[in-house]
Amino acid sequence: MINDKMAKALNEQMNKEFYNSRLYLSMATFFHDINMEGGAKWMEKQAAEETEHAMKLYNYLKDRGARILLTEVPAPPTSWASPLAAFEDAYKHECDVSKEIDDLVEMARTLKDNATLNFLQWFVDEQVEEEAITDAIVQKLKMASKGSGALFFMDRMLGER
Ligand code: FEO
User: Which candidate, 120, 39, 21, places its Cα nearest to that of 84?
Assistant: First the structure.
């Protein structure tokens, strides 16, 4: 049986991951709107991954006998100044998520909850990857912003995800 405080924090994280999915889906609609289908596809895949993150937490809570509570998910932003601004937001958001995961790890450690510590390691590794990927796209978009041709090829590359 999992500690109530730990279960509550993991439940909150599950709801945050559902928000993350909606955030990326909203970004996908922005990319559709500016006719960058590659960017839209990238964001749709990311949204699906975020739902998987939420479901990992859901299944873990279920396995540990915790009561799972789905709470209200806030509306995400709906527009960005540019493709670069959207990916800069994505990168910043992933850094915030990494901090949330670190806080959960800290709680698990304090509560001597080794099962949760072990479970969270997947998220720790995933965040390293998510920060690196979004930051790399930000850097490329900065270079591409110097010419519309480069942005066109960048969109193609994003669509190959
Ligand atoms: Fe599930 Fe990208 O944080």
Answer: 39
